[in-house]
Amino acid sequence: MPTIYDVAKAAGVSIATVSRVLNGYPFVAEKTREKVLRAMQELNYSPNLLAAALMKKNTYTVGLLIPDISNPFFAEITRGVEDAANKFGFNIIICNTDNDPEKETKYVNLLLQKSVDGLIFATSEIANQNILMLKERQFPLVLIAREVEGIEVDVVLADNFQGAYEGVKYLISLGHHRIAFLGESLNIKSTRERQAGYEKALQEAGIPVEAELIVTGLKSLEEAYHRMRLFYPKARPTAVFAANDVLAIGAIRALKELGLSIPGDVSVLGFDDTIFASIAEPPLSSVAQPMRQMGKMAMTRLISRIRNKEEKCRRLVLPTKLVIRASTKACS
């Protein structure tokens, strides 16, 4: 049976380097990591990870708490997390919280009972007691896509304010002045940031922010669809900025059923640039987030946190990009 010494010899590296690869340390050159993994495969080497985990009190398992994996945005993030986890020898337990604080608490407790090494968390609330508890316990934790207020923890997210601001500026440049905003709960910080970006773009253009054009608290495509059917005949916007692509698709469906043309009568702009955007009819203009990259960075950051709990917290903000498709046009 091959040993770690055989792997080190075959890869031409030290035993310590093989150990770093096995233990998922991020600071190993990619070529070196590939040599070690190739040597392990050729020798059919299978380390006793369970025994090592018991000795080190590590399980090489992390929890990923997301609102809904059926949302393509979180599916892409999950893929990024999983890709990075596999690379470093970690496994993932995925929990869908449905943005329900009670479900979050249930899953956090369950994952702690399973002795996971850390958590990646897309929280449902700006003020989250689970995050506070984990922080007080110095439990390895990285927030993704969303953050909480008043608690210093590692976070990886896109620039929600700037992305929304630039998206609405684009709609204004097309001549739109009556621009509706569709968003999720204002308890989610990313919704607040995107609404703030929307309002800043309007104010800079001298366009009043009208409460009747703002609809928040939406949880699903179906809710966006039903609210838009009721909302449009009263508000009559010429453009809709949706805080995610799911809400945008719901809005498009409602507008079409009301006999309106997209973008002839109403332009629609989403946020995220998920697979929904490219397959929508018409294809949806959207503010793109680097979803898979965010997942990979969150997992890499979590591994660093697991290795060194005293490390300074970091807030990693990634830029967005406006992707223009056929759902937006100049206001006629």
From TrEMBL:
Coiled coil: none annotated. This is Transcriptional regulator, LacI family. GO terms for molecular function: DNA-binding transcription factor activity; transcription cis-regulatory region binding. InterPro entries: HTH_LacI, Lambda_DNA-bd_dom_sf, Peripla_BP/Lac1_sug-bd_dom, Peripla_BP_I. Residues 2-56 form the HTH lacI-type domain. SMART domains: HTH_LACI. Keywords: DNA-binding, Repressor, Transcription, Transcription regulation. CDD domains: HTH_LacI, PBP1_LacI_sugar_binding-like.
